[in-house]
Design the sequence.
């Protein structure tokens, strides 16, 4: 029940193996692969931050791109318009995204029904329109270009993004396994019962959204600093939907599943390049098959099985060794 | 002794329907009281008003000497007034013990720490100790009622409101649950208010019954007095033409001398 309490040694070893595998990518992959993987790691940060709020509490957010876009534009403005060092972009992006989460979360999260989901969706759409309308400051369709690079080499940018993802997942998973996470999952179960247990559900929902927004905004700044460019496509509804699909494919509410889902789907998109113009058809077909036949997702449930198998094997091994 | 709960002139309207009409009563500490009434009498609405889930149009609620109107539901729980729901709504996807841990995380009792140990102790007390690690989805209806009581008891209430705790239970499950409620009342000195639409479940449990119909209190007294009260008989017989015994769950002549 306590933090890390339900995390086994096998989970930690599994995480270390994944981090190790991701760490060797720059040694074995081409520049192109490293670039794709850096973007995939950004997606993983966005997906795990979505999962923290929506996967745990069950209140689905259809406009996560609002936080990503505001974070990215914040980093872009500070760097391009105000000439500040790219490093300032990270805390500023997180803070501005949190402000947006409060503007939308406080009035709508206390209501039942789809208001929160719709407000997030329209918030992202409105911000995308605004970023195009106020083209003198935002660069319009072209966005903000020419951010000064934060790290000189592509490989160091990759490792920086990887470290950021690892920190994100550790923090979010730590909260998810703490009494806080228990309350968030209880909110998903039933809000009225939660209130009857003496829990201030609005406080917890809004705080979860703030944390989710902070990491999404941070991830947006990371993406902006890697691409050295920010555009209105970062507010796109398609981006939000993509992130939701990644979490569904990964397995909701597990945090690490979202990371797996993001890497899997970005990998799938790249892997299907050989299908050229049929790529989207094949991609959509695979997605439909996954969502239809494996509704609980692929990554998290698969890991749970692998973990059981490993624990079973090691128990058998210990028995044989002691016999 | 001053009343633990004091309700005065409570009224709640939904459009043209007055669900609760000018209801006044008081509960002394340590009392078990029943609220009896046919379906639609306003019993659950009364509970929703008392626990902050709905705001009354008129009237006052005093709990432990402090007014409760306009106080959020979770704050009311943290002042010591807990409730269960007519339809139990557990936290699906969590284990039985996790369901109770949530109650241990309420601000008033959280500082005591040992949340999981306290949750397990409470599960032992309500007879669910062996099922602590089971997923809540697998529990029977009777066990869900016990779980709900456990989750409320860990918030350390002074007054516990039970909304039809026996609804949907088989005869074999009712008596053990009633025994548990009696036991908790005795050992904790808990004040309990129970809603039922049948009198039978009350007979051994409560000393005083408040009978409601169409949102109003129509009679107050011992179960034996209530069952012979003309307005109660009218409320139950007046509709549907069924016989009183079936509707109340007890025959008036048998009620004499009980309670």
Sequence:
């Amino acid at each position: 029940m306590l933090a890390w309490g339900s995390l086994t040694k096998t989970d930690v070893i599994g995480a270390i193996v994944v981090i190790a595998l991701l760490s060797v990518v720059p040694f074995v992959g081409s520049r192109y692969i490293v670039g794709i993987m850096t973007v995939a790691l950004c997606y993983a940060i966005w997906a795990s931050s979505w999962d923290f709020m929506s996967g745990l509490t069950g209140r689905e957010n259809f406009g996560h791109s609002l936080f990503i876009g505001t974070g990215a534009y914040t980093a872009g403005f500070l760097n391009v318009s105000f000439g500040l060092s790219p490093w300032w972009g990270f805390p500023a992006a997180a803070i501005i995204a949190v402000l947006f989460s409060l503007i939308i979360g406080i009035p709508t999260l206390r209501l039942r029904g789809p208001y929160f989901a719709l407000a997030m969706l329209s918030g992202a759409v409105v911000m995308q329109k605004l970023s195009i309308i106020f083209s003198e400051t935002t660069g319009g369709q072209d966005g903000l270009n020419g951010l000064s690079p934060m790290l000189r080499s592509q490989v160091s940018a990759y490792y920086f993004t990887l470290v950021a993802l690892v920190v994100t997942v550790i923090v979010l998973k730590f909260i998810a396994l703490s009494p806080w996470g228990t309350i968030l999952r209880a909110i998903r179960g039933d809000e009225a019962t939660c209130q009857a247990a003496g829990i201030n559900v609005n406080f917890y929902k809004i705080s979860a959204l703030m944390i989710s927004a902070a990491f999404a905004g941070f991830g947006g700044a990371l993406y902006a600093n890697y691409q050295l460019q920010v555009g209105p496509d970062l507010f796109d509804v398609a981006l939000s939907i993509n992130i939701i699909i990644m979490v569904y494919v990964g397995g909701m509410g597990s945090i690490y599943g979202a990371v797996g889902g993001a890497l899997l789907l970005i990998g799938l998109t790249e892997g299907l390049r050989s299908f050229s113009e049929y790529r989207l058809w094949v991609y959509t077909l695979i997605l439909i098959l996954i969502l239809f036949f494996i509704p609980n997702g692929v990554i998290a449930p698969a890991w749970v099985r692998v973990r059981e198998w490993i624990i079973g094997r090691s128990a058998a091994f210990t028995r044989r060794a002691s016999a | 002794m001053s009343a633990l709960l004091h309700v005065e002139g409570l009224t709640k309207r939904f459009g043209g329907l007055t669900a609760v009409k000018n209801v006044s009563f008081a509960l002394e500490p340590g009392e078990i009281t029943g609220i009896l009434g046919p379906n639609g009498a306003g019993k659950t609405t009364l509970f929703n008003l008392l626990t902050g889930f709905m705001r009354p149009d008129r009237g006052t609620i005093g709990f432990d000497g402090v007014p409760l109107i306009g106080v959020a539901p979770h704050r009311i729980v943290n002042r010591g007034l807990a409730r269960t729901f007519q339809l139990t709504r557990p936290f699906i996807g969590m284990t039985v013990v996790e369901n109770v841990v949530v109650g241990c995380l309420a601000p008033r009792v959280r500082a005591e720490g040992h949340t999981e140990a306290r949750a397990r102790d409470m599960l032992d007390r309500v007879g669910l100790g062996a099922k602590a690690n089971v997923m809540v989805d697998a529990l029977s209806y009777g066990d869900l009622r016990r779980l709900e009581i456990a989750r409320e008891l860990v918030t350390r209430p002074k007054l516990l409101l039970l909304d039809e705790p026996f609804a949907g239970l088989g005869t074999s499950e009712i008596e053990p649950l009633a025994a548990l409620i009696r036991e908790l009342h005795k050992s904790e000195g808990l004040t309990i208010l129970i809603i039922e639409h049948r009198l039978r479940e009350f007979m051994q449990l409560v000393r005083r019954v408040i009978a409601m119909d169409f949102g109003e209190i129509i009679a107050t007294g011992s179960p034996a007095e209530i069952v012979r009260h003309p307005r109660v008989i009218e409320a139950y017989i007046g509709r549907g033409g069924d016989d009183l015994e079936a509707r109340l769950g007890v025959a008036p002549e048998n009620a004499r001398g009980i309670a």
